[in-house]
Specification:
The structure is a single chain. With 101 residues, this protein is α+β, with helices and mostly antiparallel strands. Helix content is 44%, strand content 16%. It has two domains: 55 residues, Up-down Bundle (Single alpha-helices involved in coiled-coils or other helix-helix interfaces); 44 residues, no CATH class. The chain is built from three helices and three strands; from the N terminus they run αααβββ. It has a three-stranded antiparallel beta sheet, with no helix packed on it. The chain is globular and about 50 Å long. Bound molecules: zinc ion (ZN). The site of zinc ion has 8 residues, from loops.
Length: 101
């Protein structure tokens, strides 16, 4: 198998795992975390760049799978610079993402 193929398959698997993780988060958080961790593992091993929509589901500090409204909080900042604040409810780490105006 060449690198392109491996990357394609890895990305597919990651997407499936993240889908499963999102489906399970309200039912079985432990299982959900397991799926998410597996996805992260594949991503690291194959070194594929995860799309932002997936990357934002992982806390940058504790690397846990965090879903807005479930175990992370998303707030819009009140400063002049438009940004959203994402709070990880696992480790209380807050990070900001600046939204382009
Ligand atoms: Zn965290």
């Amino acid at each position: 198998m060449n690198k392109k193929n491996i990357e394609r398959i890895a990305t597919e698997r990651i997407e499936i795992l993240i889908d499963n993780a999102l489906n399970e988060i309200n039912r079985d958080e432990k299982l959900s975390q397991t799926y998410a961790k597996l996805a992260l593992k594949i991503g690291m091993r194959v070194r594929v760049r995860m799309p932002y929509s997936i990357r934002q589901l992982f806390c940058r500090k504790c690397k846990q799978f965090i879903v807005p409204g479930v175990n992370s909080r998303v707030r819009i900042g009140r400063t002049r610079v438009k940004c959203i604040r994402i709070t990880c409810m696992k480790c209380n780490h807050v990070y900001r993402k600046i939204i382009a105006v």
